[in-house]
Structures are given as C-alpha cells and as structure tokens.
Amino acid sequence: MTEESKIINHCSFCGNSKEVVKKLIVGDTVAICSDCVELCQDLITDETAEPEKQESQYYPESIREYLDSHVIGQDDAKMVLSVAIANHYKRISNPPKDTEIQKGNVLIVGPTGSGKTLLAKTAAKFLKVPFVVADATSLTEAGYVGDDVESMISMLVNAAGGDKELAERGIVFIDEIDKIARKGESTSITRDVSGEGVQQALLKLVEGTVCRVPGGGGRKHPGSDMLEVNTKNILFIAGGAFVGLKDVINNRMNGTSIGFGASIKDSKVEGDLDKVTPDDLTKFGMIPEFIGRFTTTVSIQNLNKEQLMQILTDVKNNYIGQYTYLLKLDNIELTFTEEALDQIAENCLQLKTGARGLHTEIERVLMPHMFYTRKYKENQIKQININRESVLDPKPLL
Ligand SMILES: Nc1ncnc2c1ncn2[C@@H]1O[C@H](COP(=O)(O)OP(=O)(O)O)[C@@H](O)[C@H]1O
Ligand SMILES: [Mg+2]
C-alpha cells in the first residue's frame, strides 16, 4: 500500500480527528483543520500586515495607540516619542523653504529589558519604514578594526531591500549608546577607540551627511553600484541603560556635599531618570555635541509585577500565546492559573533583566512538559495546567 492511498482523517498539525474539528481540509499527504488554519492566519497577518503605502502625516495619538497595543506601561515615553516621531515625519514630508527646522533625534534612557528597543521597533512598524538595530559597542571610528558607523546605513539600505529613497526615511536604533561614554579622565592619554572617538564619528551621520554605501549590486557583485545615501531624514533613536546616571542626577539635585554639615536625610530628593538634563549626560561621559543632536530625551521606568503579568498575557505576540500555540500543535491545551502568572512575574523581578526574564522563566517552567510531548501523546495527556506549584518546581506530568 502506498502512502498516498491512505485516507487522512486527522489534522497533521494538531492531530485532532475529523470528528472533533469543524472542517478538515485534506491534501495528498497532509490535512489541516479549521482551527489550525485560523491560528496560522493570525500568525501570518501579524507578520505581514504591512501595507505598501506610507502616509505623509501621522498624528501622535495614532502612533500612541499603536504603541499601546504592543508595549505595556512607559506612558510618558510613549507620549514624548509619538510627538517626536510625528514631528520628524511632518518635517521631512514638508521641508520648509526659508526656515531650517533642526532635526530631532531621540535618546531613550532607562533600565534594560523595559522596552527601549521594542518602542523604537514598534514605531517603525507602524510607520512602515525600514528599521535596524545597531549595537554601539561594535562601532568604531573609521580606520579601526570593527564596523565603522556607516555600516549602520548599509544595514538600513539592506532592510529597505536596496531601495535608497525608502532607506532615507528609515529609523536606526543605536543600542547601548551609554557604553561609548567617555571613560574617566585617566584614560585620555591614548585615543579612546571605543568611546569618545565613536561619538565623534557618529556626529555627522546623525546630523545629516551623504555617505557612500554598497548598494544595488549587493554582496553578489561587490564593488558595483555604490549608493549615495543622505542621512538628513533618517531618524536616529539611541538607547541605553545609563547605569549610574541616577547618581549623577541625585548629586546635582542634592548637592555633592558629603561629610561635614551635609544634611543627608533632610532634603534628599530621589533623583529620577525623567529629571535628566543634557548636563547630566555630559557628566556621565557623553560629549556635548553628541547630546546636542539628540534633542528629545525620553526616560523609561522599571516594569512592576502587574506590568510584567500584562506582558505575559495582554500584548500582541505575548509569550503565553506563543507557547500555547506551540503546545496546541501537539494537541495539548496549555493553561495558567492567576497565581502561576503572579509567581512567574515575581521570579522575573528577581532576575533584574526586565521583561527579558519572562522568556527565561516561561522556558524554565515549560521545559519538562515540552520535552515529554511524545510521552504525553502516548499517555493521552491533553491538558497542562500550570499553577504556582508547577512554577516553583517544574515537573513533567508523568
Ligand atoms: N514595556 C514592555 N511591554 C511589552 N513587552 C516588553 C516591554 N519591555 C520589554 N518587553 C519584552 O522584553 C523584550 C526585551 O525588551 P527590549 O525592548 O529589547 O528592552 P531594552 O529596554 O533593553 O531595549 C522585548 O522583546 C519584549 O518582549
Ligand atoms: Mg534593547
């Protein structure tokens, strides 16, 4: 008997038989049920929901609404960022004739894993412009080993599928910008490759310059078609955790008077990142010219437990949904009790890696179950309910 001649009566994806599903679409060698079609549809529309056309005007409120469906909390940051982005695209779509409106790049300051990259990425998705993330720590001045700063622009051209005009309206997110802060005074004897020099190299680029990057020909035809890309309309968003910046702000707000007569407890104000000034950033080690080109500074806050729980279940593409889907493919229904979610968020707080810890936690909790899916199938286990106990001590159900 050949494979083909078998009549398929269950879904090849979730394994449900044709009796229990609404509809079963049967092909030559596989079949899919209506539930799985729906799941796939959701996944696909989410990934490819980018219509071709770009608008020439965006309202901050619309940007904000879109950010809200993907990013939890960070209300102030969303508002400031929405306005900055709307203004940027308003300006480049209607270049003023006699006045020069200065370009406003954006600096996002705040703890790791709290949504800096996610905010920038989500905004780019909304605007339907190409987006790249560049790591500041891997950038060097021209002439040193490493990626020179113009490599960011060639990445952007790639992200735009080689379309120069599109790239010129794109967004570059420069991550870990705090890592290229000037080091202490003592290191100034030799040239500071990773720090100040890179800031200097970035100046022209973020302000607006024409740079020549390999384009058209791409990798297959090296040397052919250098593209001249003007960066004046590219929006640069820089992000960094700026560990220690709070102390700088604190010192400014409370005076640095330590010791005799200093009133430590009386009038101490807790310096908050949203009080940051350009001066604080200079003290931290950013050069003033660099800070001057990032006219909007946005601060984001540590996520609290409730927000972490929301990230688990409420945002688009949330982690619980992703793993529920994965297990559904094994015909297993995955559920979590409220206490379990609470415990996962609690554990995540301890990891101090922001929402990134959620992924680590979910993986840890579901590991034994995901490993034994074959055993579960053999034993007809079709339901996993995760409670607090199984978060604290993940064990397979067998
Ligand atoms: N405010 C948030 N809302 C929703 N998800 C978040 C949030 N912050 C972080 N995450 C999740 O954590 C991951 C890492 O966040 P990211 O934006 O890269 O942090 P960072 O601030 O270090 O750039 C994101 O991919 C996302 O899944
Ligand atoms: Mg990041």
Structure description:
- With 398 residues, the chain is an alpha/beta fold.
- It is 41% helix and 13% strand.
- The protein has 16 helices and 13 strands.
- It has a five-stranded parallel beta sheet with strand order 4-7-10-3-11, with helices on both faces.
- A hairpin with a 4-residue loop joins strand 1 (24-26) and strand 2.
- Helix 2 (60-70) crosses helix 3, helix 8 packs across helix 9 (278-284) and helix 11 packs across helix 13.
- The longest helix has 19 residues, at 75-93.
- The two termini are 37 Å apart.
- Residues 1-5, 48-52, 185-189 and 261-267 have low confidence and may be disordered.
- The structure holds adenosine-5'-diphosphate and magnesium ion.
- Magnesium ion is lined by residues 116-117, 175, 239.
Report the order of strands and helices: EEHHHEHEEEHHEHEEEHHHEHHEHHHEH
What compounds sit in this structure? adenosine-5'-diphosphate, magnesium ion
What share of residues is helical? 40-55%
Distance between termini?
37 Å
Task: Enumerate the spans where pLDDT stays under 50 for 5 or more consecutive residues.
Answer: 1-5, 48-52, 185-189, 261-267
Shape: globular
Order of strands, widest sheet: 4-7-10-3-11
> Count of helices?
16
Secondary structure category: alpha/beta
